[in-house]
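Let's inspect one such protein example.
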Amino acid sequence: MSDAVADGGGQRAGKTLRQRAPRAGYRLNFWLVFTATSAIGVAANLFVFFPVYIVKLGGDAAAIGAIVAVGALAALAARPGFVPLTDRRGRRTTALWSLVLEALAIVLYIPVHSLGWPIYAVRVMQGAVDGTARVALFALVFDILPEGRRGEAMALFSLSGQGPAAVGPLVGEALLKYFGFDVLFWVAAMLCLVAAAATAMLPDDH
């Protein structure tokens, strides 16, 4: 009986120690992915004014719908298509190069001065690499969520999407008011490069 009591006491003590053990904290890698996702989130939300740009080029409602739609379709098509690339090359590398290509795609809007195939091509490129980058970043953050705080961490990580949705349109409006679309595109491209820089600081997962 004394052995049983001892065993029961040991189990309770072990359980108490586990309950009192400090929870894992948020490491630098988590904040790097948070920063990268926030940066491309702000860049994406600058594009709430993209329909205005299309109108400026002479487009109507049909042109707005068509150009915006091809970007969305490219993003959807790229996500499953690039999953093997993410597994083969690694999430970090896939996200990094996708973000660099997205910065390039955004800059390519600047020399577009009329409607035609170039704006559709740029939009497809932007949509494809943006979708790929987001999938890779989400996979990265899922791997580094702190043990015992996954629900809390995902709630915190969701702010990297909600915050930019609130800030991006305000920044975009100010940029258009004082500078114009060229500067807006440059700022969006720079934000993608900020995201790429944060991603480059992550350890290689390949």
Summary: The radius of gyration is 22 Å. Residues 13-22 have pLDDT under 50 and may be disordered. The longest helix spans residues 117-143.
